[in-house]
Fold this sequence. Notes:
By secondary structure, chain A is α+β, with helices and mostly antiparallel strands. Chain A contains 8 helices and 4 strands, in the order αααααααββαββ. Chain A folds into 2 domains: 2-60, no CATH class; 77-171, H-NOX domain.
Amino acid sequence: MLGMLDRSLEAFLRDCHGDEAWRDILAAANIRPEEFLSSAFTGRSRIRRIVLIAARKLGKAPEDILEDLGAWLVQIEPIRRLLRFSGTSYGDFVLSLGELPARAGMILADMPEFGLAVVQKGQGGFAILSRRLPPGWLNVLAGALRGMADDYGTLALISVNGEAILLSIALEGHAASRPFALSFGEAQ
Amino acid sequence: MSVPAGVLDLDALLPMHLLLLDGDRIGRAGPTLRKLIGSTTRLQDCLEVERPPAAIADPAGLCSAIASGEPVQMRLRHHAGITLRGRGGRLAGGYLLDLGLGMSLVQAVRAFDLNGADFTPSDLALELLFLHEANRAVMAELARTNRRLEEARAAEAKLAVTDALTGLLNRRGFQTELEQAMRSLRVQPFVLAQLDLDDFKQVNDRFGHAAGDVVLQSVARALESETRATDRLGRMGGDEFMMILAGPASAAELGAIGRRIIARIREPVAFKGLALEVSASIGFSRSQDHDRWDLAAMMAEADSALYQDKARRRGQRPQRRRQTD
């Protein structure tokens, strides 16, 4: 599980900021690239260290790095597809976020036990409440929700507020939704 | 067909239902099932009963199987490999079956372009598709990680048997290759060659170790260019090289190979404006001359041949080399 986080973080930073930046970050974190390969060295504190150093190097807030990571992750086709199984519209998708921990637990070993609950607040407004979510994950989730809004072609306002994400759907069908069919193509 | 309409919406509730009027005539079918079987009104046009055995090609048997609540399995006639299964009972003078896709789900979704609306919320089809896809993604990711680790391991393993200066095998690597060659010498004879440079120490002494290193690298390239890809080349340490040349060879062939290698080594090597010149001596031992698994004897023979060669080059009488290791 943590190995997957490592891998996501690496792929995201290299993809968005280049191999050079990634090597600098590893060097500043005092991690040798071949160590990074090995899951034996993985740990939460190391991931945190990398995020903090990346934030400093790239001149961004750590929360922004995490949100960008979330938005980047959901652009990866297999991940995007898995998330699209949760809802036929963006509103539907947001409402089914409560199922996300169970879905994640089904496919990833040693997924930490966490809870998400969605409360509807008026027309198109939602509060996503989290329970026992490891630090930083809420920001990744907020970024993923932003990315998925783009995917569904929906305009949504998303903010992280303490333990909760506040989300309001401004306009569904704002842009064209990326296509999604239950069956994946032969090419994949 | 009188279905109690308005009480239950069969299409919404059971989108895969099939209502038979008798063993063959279709009264109605749910919208998802219609995508699979088309608009036909005859069972035999679209579905073939596979279970229970008593219902195969027997309309009356099918009716009584449905009426008694037995599991029924049918396959699509026009799509090989897609099987439906379900059970049912009597309804309003007909026979109602609620069918499901079972393990044909993934195939059917692809073949008929089914979507989320084709399944009821209580159906686990979407979850199954999700898991199917997640499984593939996770397996692909694991395979990728394994590949990366394997590449790293292979690179490490190669380093462990490579001589850093010349890129040839190091002593350990060559030893392994030699043991391998000895094990298969019955089917694959080989020649063990030993080579060292004449007066290499003088190059080091006069021009420094950097010059010596350039000479050793140039010798390695000379050996590579005069041997085949299937031969194995090693630097055993210092200026001592060994080779495993695959295949049997005559004494005359070996003489020619030796002369070619040494001529190549004698070509001047450029170093900081200098042209360094060295020569070498070479000795061979052929596995075909040894009828036992005796590496020590082969090595001793190659070693001895090398020193005869060296002595001849110096115009001296053969003499035993001092044992250096």
